[in-house]
Predict the structure.
Amino acid sequence: MLIAGILWCVALVFALAPPAPPVATSQVDAALTAIEVAGAKLQAFTADVAYRKDDALLGGGELRTGDMVYERCDEAGARLAIRFEYRIDLGDMSRRRETKRVVFDEGWLVESDESQRQFIKRQIVKPGDTADPMRLGGPFPLPIGQKRADVLRRFSVIECEGEPDAFAVMKESSVIGLHLVPLPDSAASQKWAYIDLWYDRETWLPVGVRAVEENGDMRRIRLTDLSPHETLSEAATSQLSIELPGEGWSVDVQPWSE
């Protein structure tokens, strides 16, 4: 983001900031336009993902690694699955296999913990609502397909200064970074101090994210081996399933609630 306690844990925010977008520099404006165009053309992709959370107050944190599947459903929506296979405790650097799957599809968010055999399915979008939970500042943020005008309505955007974050971006990557600060009085400003996004300069697809909360907690995402697809394989499509598991699982289904 992550996501719903595993990734970005962003608040349920869909409101727009003040309607008049600020003026961006020509280079930032061109980058946002290229990002929007690239996202509109993307039908599906798979990627390896690494997620790191650092706790500002207590120190330590965690690192999770796995893979990601994304598929556009139509002009208004998409579905996404992230499967984490390993967890590293940043306090004692212990590593263990801990399989978790997070899926968003048709307004539902699924968290599946295979080791604990727990399955939680929550409806995070009000039935009939057209708000996009994958927009930056939403409950399931994804830096793909973001519309330039929408980003500028809610964030002040400048180009990142200095070297990219060492965790979020591989050294050999040729990237451009965008530094996003929520506009005053926007809903995102209640949660985030800033969000940094890095994109590949050739494909204009994301490679890294660094999001810092108002309390100093930091969440970082690194995407590698991102491969666009016209259609997904059967194995990749199966990861997007939000169907209930079989017997032997603890299942909790939570429909939309005001």
About this structure: The chain is about 10% helix and 40% strand. Confidence is low (pLDDT under 50) at residues 1-22.
